[in-house]
Structure formats: structure tokens, C-alpha cells
Amino acid sequence: MTTRLGAMIREQAGERLFERIEQVRLLSKAIRQKQDRAAIRAKRRLLSRLSLPEAHQVAHAFSLFFQLVNLCEERERIRHLRARAAPPQSLAWLFSNLRAARVAPEALARCLAALEVEPVLTAHPTEARRRTALSHLMRLARGPDWDLENPDFRARLDEILEVLWQTLEVRERPVTPLDEVDNVLFFFERTIFETVANFYRTFDAELAAAYPGIERTREFLTFASWIGGDRDGNPLVTPEVSLAAMQRQRALILDYYRRQCGLLVEELSHAHPLEWEPRPGRLESPPADSVQFSEGLRRRLHELGRRLGTPGLSAEEFVAQLESMREELGRRRAPRAAAGRLTRLVTQDRVFGFHLAELDFRDHHDRLHAHGGAAVLAELRALRRLQRRHSPAAAHRFILSMTRDADDLRRLLSLARRARLTEVDLVPLFETIDDLERCDAVMAELWQDRRYRAHLARRGDVQEVMLGYSDSTRTAATWRQLVSLPPAAPGRLADECGVRLRLSRQGRDHRPQRRSRPSHPARATFAARRPDPHHRAGRGGLSQFRSFLAQRNLGS
Predict the structure, then answer these.
(1) What pLDDT does 122 receive?
(2) Which residue has the higher pLDDT, 233 or 351?
(3) Whole-angstrom distance, CA of residue 140 vs CA of residue 31
């Protein structure tokens, strides 16, 4: 694969540049393997003599080289996983281990009833890769088995390498918050929609095979996003940006549903001759040229797709209509059609609704106390407007970074009341070592506060607490220090106060990634610390959703 890239560089940029790239590669290899000081000096001399256009092309070549290497590694991992009947961490492996551990069906049913897994997608403002380049790489990754001896594959590979070489990988202008939103929507559209449906199909099949009497009754895997709502992570995020971010999310998922309805119109041609009976005032022709009078399901799907996005159709009604069609197919002895695209669409609607991913709002402790909290008040008002335009399910969390004491949450609650926002979960994020050690006392004080407990009662007596750290340049906490903290008392305190606790961890690797003060969540999903299933929730940040191994990332 990389040899073909080298041939393309020779063709596009000439032998001289290719030789420079090879010299850099060989010197880098020598430095890596032997720490050769002479190689270090030679590499520095070589790079210092490059002109600006040559330096750009060398950097471009190595960028493409490593992206191709990553693709090859992922391809090999996929081959390795497919060669095993139940690879580690797959759903088949999971249920096999549950059976081997003699987990009772009743215990598993209780776990599934309480289980919550919510990957939270987060932004990197320093991420400059364009969706255009990612699309070309996906074209290559999703092709058939790679065979360089096959002339057709070689021609397709060379075509993609040619366009990648001539495509700018980085943006010509700074990345805006809405650019970040568009980037994450790219992964939803290209990967996550189908992966989620595949995951639930596999999960239900493996569950039925291992525990025939147990059925999943709800979608426990959903998605959230900080992109467009995280003011602490990006000072350019405004209330208007948050509203626009949710509008883009809604537009994407509704467009996806419309296309799926269109495909179902093509597929569900099941006819019932008695469905069409001429009556006075009834249309003399069906709603579309391809739909006959007797094809009632197609007519209903055509109308349902037309109504998507109109005020009269909610996500709940949409899924109810799909469910009724699925039941009708069952009555007509068409279980295969009922279990196909229609079931996938039902699952997707239950996961994504009409909002796609829950939008979290987050801001910093300092802004809560600056200028009377005016900025935070504006954000809470925007959150209320967002709920009124969409639904409370679209956004209901406000996370306060660098929470110090109970007064921070009391003040945040007071501002929420001024904004007339009642359907909101106030989430403290404890980050420094001192704050992490104080979090038990802070929560105990809050849970004994009459006004705060009244608010918590309206939220089902559920309290989410985030433990983590933001930026190693401003706090001593590192991830290793965080995980070594004693698990201590939040869960016991919650039990004593009658509160259901959602405890999650947030953090990232220790290397600074930007100069600004705000932080970014972790690159993995972390489960709650409490082993009690009543307190268990998995929620954490994902800076990337690995497109080509998405199915593997979700455990199937």
C-alpha cells in the first residue's frame, strides 16, 4: 500500500522529492532504532535545506503514509477478529462469560433494566483534518478485500491516492464551533447510524442464544455531545451556537429517517387487495406513481416520510407508526420484512429520537461568579429555548467545571430558576485533587439542603457527579492520581439521603493539546465507580469515533 503511495509521489512530485522523503524516512528509522546522533544531525541538515514548498510536500507525504499505515493496521485487526468465533470483548464473548459465571437470568434482567451507556462525543479545536480527506480514506477502507495483484483494485487505489495527494488535508481558515459540529455529524452519518442498528441486532441475537427467556426492553446505549454546548472547552461557543448545533443535529437525523422511509417504500410492496375500496370523496389515484391502491404500507410510509419535520409529528408518534406497521407485517406472516430495515429504523428512532444526540451544556466555575453570572444565565435561557423548540430529551444537563463547594450548585440552581428552567440536571465536575477529596462533604451538604432536594425530587432523585481533571498545565491531578483515589463515600451518602447516584469519570491524557485554559473530556468511556447496579452508569468522552472499527468499538 505504501509502495503505491511512493509510486504516486514519484509521478506527481518527481524523483527528487521522493528521494528527499526516503532520506527522511531512513534517517528517522535509524534514530528510532539506534538513537544515532550522526543520523540526528544529518536529518536536521536535510530538513533545514528544504524550501517551503518542499517542506509542505514532505509533511503531506508522511501524513498520508501514516494514515495508510493506520488503515492497514485496522484492516489486519478486523481480519484477526473475524477469524475468531467469539473474540475478546465481543458480545458473544460477553454472554459466554456470563453463562460460565452462572449469572442468573433474573440478575441479568435487573442489570439490563438499569443499564445506561452513553458515549459523549467531544471536540478538539486543534483538529484540522477535513471531512473531504476522511471521505476519500473511507472509500479506500470500505472497499473489498485489498489485493494489489488485482488490476481493478490497483486502479481504484491509485485513483484515491492521486486525489489524496492533490487534496489539501487542512483547512484554510480557523475551525469554528459549527465546523466541529459538522465534523461529528459526518461520523454519525457515515458510521454511527448503521453501527448502532447492527449492535442492537447482534446484542438481541446473542442474548436470545444465551438466555432464551430474557428480552431487552429498552435501548440502553444512547449518545450525547459536548460539541456546540461546551463553553469551557471553547470560548467561541455561544448560546446561538448551541441552538444552531441542535438544529443541524435535528436536520441530519430527520433527513436520514426520510431516506429510510423512501427505501422502505421501495421494499415493503406487500399488497392486500381488499385495502382499497372506492368510496365517495376518496382519491382516484395513489399518492405516488409507483404505489398501487392495494399497497397500504407503502402509502402509509410515503405519508409518514412527508410528515417528518412538521410540528404535528413527534419522535414518539413516529416510532408508534413504525411499530404498528411491524405488527401488521407479523399478522400478514411476513416476519422477515418486519425484522429488516423497519426494525432497524424503530431501534434508531429510539436511540436518536428527533434530536440525534443529547447536547450537554458546560461552563467554568469562574463564569458562574463573574458579572453576576450573566453569561451562565444566558446559557440557561438558551437551554430552555432549546427544550421548547425540540424536547427536554435533546438537552437537560448543565455541567459546572471546577466545582469547589455546595454554594456553586446553589447559585447555579438559583440562576436556573431565574431562567425559568426546571427540567435540568445540575452536574458538578470535581477536578483538582483538593476538590476531589472534598466532593463527599460538598454533596452531603447539598443533599441536606431543602431547596436543592426539592429540585432533585423533580428530577427523580437522580444526581450525576463527574470526577476528573481538566488540564495538566493548571492542576496537579493526573489520571493515575485520579484512579488511585480511595472510592470512599459518595455512594453510601447517596443511599443514606435517598439519592440515586450517577458517578462518572472525566479526563484526558496528560499532554497539553492547546494553550487556552479550558479542557476536553477523555478519549474513553468510563464506568461508574460504584459496584451497586442501582448506581451504575457509563458516561464519558470520546474525542473520536473510529470509523473503520466502529462495530468492534461497541462490542459486537
Answers:
(1) 86
(2) 351
(3) 32
Q: Name the pTM for this structure.
A: 0.83
Strand partners, 495: none
pLDDT at 305: 95
Which grid coordinates belong to 18? 521522493
With CA atoms as reference, report the closest residue to 398 among 383, 419, 378, 414.
383
Contacts of 361 (CB under 8 A, 6+ apart): 229, 230, 231, 242, 379, 380, 382, 383, 395, 397, 398, 399
- The answer to whether the beta carbons of residues 361 and 398 sit under 8 Å apart is yes
pLDDT for 476 beyond 60? no
Q: Comparing 108-122, 140-154, 417-431, which segment has the lowest mean pLDDT?
A: 140-154
Does the structure show a pLDDT above 90 at 143? Answer: no
**Is the model's pLDDT at 554 over the cut of 60?**
no
Long-range contacts, 184-188 (Cβ 8 Å, 24+): 184/121, 184/123, 184/225, 184/227, 184/545, 185/248, 185/249, 185/252, 185/356, 186/131, 186/134, 187/121, 187/545, 187/547, 188/223, 188/252, 188/253, 188/356, 188/357
* Contacts for 376 with CB less than 8 Å, ≥ 6 apart: 363, 367, 368, 412, 415
CA dihedral 40, 45, 50, 54 (to 10 degrees): -20
Whether the predicted pLDDT of 471 surpasses 90: no
More confident residue, 537 or 503: 503
Distance, in Å, from the CA atom of 376 to the CA atom of 83, rounded to the nearest integer, reads: 53
Q: Is the dihedral of CA 479, 483, 486, 490 positive or negative?
A: positive
pLDDT of residue 280: 55
C-alpha torsion 489→503→236→352, nearest 10: -170
| Distance of alpha carbon 64 from alpha carbon 134, whole angstroms | 11
Nearest to 181 by CA among 219, 106, 131: 131
